Amino acid sequence: MSNDRHQGSARGGGQPAVIAIDGPAASGKGTLAKRLAAHFRYAHLDTGKLYRGVGVAVLRSGGDPSDAAAAERAARSLDAAGLDDARLRTAEAGAAASKVAAHPGVRAALLALQRDFARRPPGGAAGAVLDGRDIGTVICPDAPTKLFVTASVEARAERRLKELQASGAAAIYAAVLQDLIERDHRDSTRSAAPLKPAEDAIVLDTTHLDADATFAAAIAAMTSRNT
Ligand code: CDP
Fold first, then answer.
1. Pocket test for ligand 1, best of 50, 83, 133 (most atoms within 8 A of CB)
2. pTM here?
3. Ligand 1 atom index nearest CA of 26
4. What's the fold here for domain 17-222?
5. What whole-number distance in Å separates Cα of residue 114 and Cα of residue 147?
6. pLDDT tens digits for 133-173?
7. Is 101 in the pocket of ligand 1 (CB under 6 A)?
8. ∠184-54-61 over CA atoms, to 5°?
9. For residue range 102-142, what is the model confidence (pLDDT) as tens digits?
10. CA 142, 124, 41: angle at the middle one, nearest 5?
């Protein structure tokens, strides 16, 4: 499986190829991003980790993620190399992330790092896959390939529940569902870079698709669009 634009080498003019993936929590965008990056040998940036890192840093310092000044300070001093902490995957970190992510100053502080990754993918990769909430709309609006991955909130809650349980966390469906509903609301109604598909994004509904079927659907849609 392949398509014209992403055929293993940089696009014309030496510009890296960029695949921008956005979507709500637990929609499958992270798994798809990893699969596409491996398939095309591109570098991958999970931008949610940056916001989770900022949220956790604020919590660690005893601050409130809704406090714009505290969140901005944490974003400016974020250590991008230290984002593999297991605490980042917790529901608490996700909720803190979506609070700090609503502050325009936090988003501004993380902008250059994300754009640099897309412009100069690490390891000399010919392209980059970035996944998040505003990659196609704000970070890389010129990306030739934009995917918006979504699924029903119930299907996403089931998936997140399984992920949390697999990581050993005690979680119940009703609480996970409520958390996603609140996060969806915060992410799509904020004024700074709200979650929404770019006008030219390919929308993939993964409610009834597993990871393999989602990957196949993405490749098929990209091929038929020739992006
Ligand atoms: O893994 P999951 O989809 O639950 O969330 P994530 O991608 O790790 O993102 C956590 C939170 O960070 C989201 O709820 C967003 O509020 C925020 N975020 C954002 O605003 N912009 C991004 N590019 C990525 C994440």
1. 133
2. 0.92
3. 3
4. Rossmann fold (3.40.50)
5. 17
6. 999 999 999 999 999 999 999 999 999 999 889 988 889 99
7. yes
8. 120
9. 999 999 999 999 999 999 999 999 999 999 999 999 999 99
10. 75
Nearest to 53 by CA among 94, 20, 113, 112: 94
**Nearest atom (ligand 1) to Cα of 93:** 10
Which pLDDT band, with edges at 50, 70 and 90, does 4 fall under? low
End-to-end CA distance of the chain: 14
Instruction: Label the pairing between strands 127-132 and 145-150.
Output: unpaired
Domain ranges of the chain: 17-222
SS3 letters across 195-211: CCCCCCCEEEECCCCCH
28 CB within 6 A, ligand 1: no
Beta strands of the chain (E only): which ranges? Answer: 17-22, 43-46, 127-132, 145-150, 202-205
Q: Token match 């700074």: residue?
A: 192
The contacts found for 172-180 with CB under 8 angstroms, 24 or more apart, are 175/91, 176/91, 177/153, 179/91, 179/94, 179/95, 180/24, 180/25, 180/26, 180/153, 180/156
